[in-house]
Amino acid sequence: MQLTYPGVYIEEISSGVHSIIGVATSIAAFVGYTSSGPDHKAVELFNFADYQRNFGGLAADSELSYAVQQFFANGGTNAFVVRVPKDGSSAAQITIPDTADTETLLKFQALSNGKWAGNIAITIDYIGLTNADPDAFNLTVTNISTGVAEVFSNVTMKTTSANYVMAVVNDPDTGSAMVQVLPLVPGSLAQPARTGLISGSMSVAEQTAALTALQGAGAAGLTIKIDTDTAVAVTLYNATDPRPASLTEVYRMLSVKCARALQAGYPGAQVNVIPVQSSLTATHIDALSVVAQIPGKTDCTVSFGSPASGINVCTTLKLDTASLTSDNVAAYWMGGTSKVAPPYNITVTAASDGTALPTGTELIGDELLGTGIYALDKVDLFNILSLPDVTRAKPGAPSSPALNDSDINAVYAAAMDYCKKRRAFLLLDPPPDVVDVPSAINWRTHRLTVNDLNGAAYFPRVRIADPLNQNQLRSFAPCGVVAGVYATEDGNRGVWKAPAGIETVMSGVQKLTYNLSNDEQGVLNPIALNCLRSFPIYGSVIWGARTLVGADAQASEWKYVPVRRFALYLEESLYRGLQWAVFEPNADPLWAQIRMNVTSFMQNLFLQHAFQGLTPTQAYYVLCDSSTTTQANIDAGIVNIEVGFAPLKPAEFVVIQLQQMAGQVAV
Q1: Cβ–Cβ < 8 Å for 338, 346
Q2: CB within 8 A of 655, min separation 6: which ones?
Q3: How many CA atoms lie less than 13 Å away from 41 in the CB half-sphere?
Q4: Do 259 and 302 reside in the same domain of the chain?
Q5: What residue spans of 188-265 are helical by DSSP H?
Q6: β-strands 179-181, 104-110: how paired?
Q7: Alpha helix segments (H runs only) across 123-270
Q8: Which CATH number fits the domain that encloses residue 507?
Q9: Model pTM?
Q10: Domain span including residue 114
């Protein structure tokens, strides 16, 4: 501040406060097969309805779909799902010709593999466009099973335009979530053929004459035919009925009466008749667009014919074959079949669901390609990783694992390495052939080779009603339920509280595949296999909180789940909260600011009873000074911060000592 005149000057001085905010602790990530949805792309969900919209809901062969449902049912609020398609699956494709049907102009491919793409219908129109861009069109992509529609208005075939169809549809942020445009090099620019039937062009005078003719004496009608089926007679109005007052009323009657006539043979049929321009150069609305929506015949064609008698609506409105501007399928349907001219050449490449559920290698994925678990690289933060497909059962053999032990261990090993890199926690499930205490001991001590501090294993599997099988009980991996309970405990008590005890009731769990006794748990607990128990009154609860390195023989300082997860929380929070310190002058003022901000963060946790100790000194310490950062460190551009804390450890064993008091006689 420059002082230039006598008086009072005010200067704002930075306090050096950079508040450290604790990160979320229970964002779950699920990787595995879903019936639909984008392949190898992490999609954020906030409830199970989000899952249904993005991935198609529950599927009998998708363990992940049930795990996500169980996560939200048990208190989870935020999750990411990565779809891994079935082994050997492929994506549907469809080609779209130009208006003259001289060449293939566009090629669409479903964004993910599988027959679910048979629900995708693509429509094209020119409504609302001008001749400013003769290659422009409107594109709509619809999932006919869910009703979700994506509209891309005024896109063009011009590769140099900002609204080039490939750039718009394939945009990773605002583009389609269902299809992508594959690169093609057409011989010349043109518009893709629009869908539906377009009547012949009518001048204003012809439209006036048509209304006059339709207001004449007698009944008015036509016939309508779907594909090559038998034509159906349609009566717009009888001889004694009132005459239409306008062409708009005629178009409305045509929609309603045609739909009613078709519904006898095609239940649910709808017909949409809309006034449109026959071309972008038309100076007025001079034609009709007719689109028939027939269940099971998404790519049908419609044609009209003359009535047996009365006013001929077909020729009056130029709906006869000889007068048409164009006659195309109602929609380009990825679930349909290839078509040959007339009307247009359309090639459909059907999708394949594949031969089997994802292999262990496919679940792991490729780090360079960002597939499998590595699709989570694009997720900023997740804390819990669940892989329910790893321990799925063979189809038709509920007690036999689909993957062998080698594959299971390979997936869990890769997942554990990834969790350590991302400061996340892995939930491990018992295979379906782990059905009793001896098999559980064998699995934990011999078959399972992953033994690391960022994970925990649970036994037994849970039995939950399956709504896809008349609510019959079905065995599931417990990871979805456990992740939901983690989220509930974190929200209610904090990440430092063990996710176990009578308050960790597992919602929806009706039975366990094995009911453990106290003595049996006494064998599993020392080998760090967390038990799920069923108690009267309380129901099914989590009754163990040890990490994979929590076996008594290992004597690890990271024995307990809450201690390890709390440490991960501290690491991630401090990592994010101290980014401001990078490139600051490495000297006493910086060290003092770091100490102040980290101490403030730790003190807030102390006030929430997150540590052992009655005083802050007993609970934690923060060091950042010349004792932690030497001159050699300063010369190397390093500042060292040492944070220690006294973690809360669960009261795993509550011992009550009773002693009889000898009777005393007063003297």
Answers
A1: yes
A2: none
A3: 14
A4: yes
A5: 204-214, 247-263
A6: antiparallel
A7: 165-169, 204-214, 247-263
A8: 3.40.50.11780
A9: 0.86
A10: 90-194+331-352
Euclidean distance between CA atoms 213 and 207, whole angstroms: 10
CB 183 within 8 A of CB 164: no
- Asked whether the beta carbons of 465 and 557 are under 8 A apart, the reply is no
Residue type, 376: L
Q: What is the pLDDT of residue 594?
A: 94
**pLDDT digit string (tens) for 646-667?**
999 887 666 777 777 766 555 5
Neighbours of 12 (CB within 10 A): 5
Encoding tokens for residue 198?
A: 């377009």
Q: Is the pLDDT of residue 30 over 70?
A: yes
In this structure, what are the phi and psi dihedrals at residue 418, rounded to the nearest 5 degrees?
A: -70, -40
Question: How many structural domains are present in the chain?
Answer: 4
Where is the domain boundary, 533, 563, 593? 563
Tokens of 638: 């390093």
- Going by pLDDT thresholds of 50, 70 and 90, the confidence category of residue 74 is very high
Block residue for tokens 């198609």: 56
For residue 11 the two structure tokens come to 């200067």
Q: Under a CB-based contact definition with an 8 Å cutoff, are residues 538 and 502 in contact?
A: yes
Q: In whole angstroms, what is the distance from residue 319 CA to residue 330 CA?
A: 16
Amino acid in position 70: Q
**411 plus 485 within the same structural domain:** yes
Q: What is the pLDDT of residue 664?
A: 58
Query: From its phi and psi, is residue 48 left (phi > 0), alpha (psi between -120 and 50) or beta?
Result: alpha
Chain segment 98-125, per-residue pLDDT in tens = 988 888 899 999 999 999 999 999 999 9
Interatomic CA distance for residues 386 and 376, integer angstroms = 12
Q: What is the DSSP letter of 378?
A: G
How far apart are the C-alpha atoms of 487 and 483, rounded to whole Å? 6
The verdict on 633 and 496 lying in the same domain is no
Express each pLDDT in 347-398 by its tens digit. Answer: 999 999 998 999 999 999 999 999 999 999 999 999 999 999 999 999 889 9
- Confidence category of residue 131, pLDDT binned at 50, 70, 90: confident
CA separation for the pair 110, 300 (Å, rounded): 21
| Cα–Cα separations (whole angstroms), residue 273 to 252, 408, 622 | 7, 57, 74
| 2 domain residue, yes or no | no
- For 206-230, write each residue's pLDDT tens digit: 999 999 999 998 999 999 999 999 9
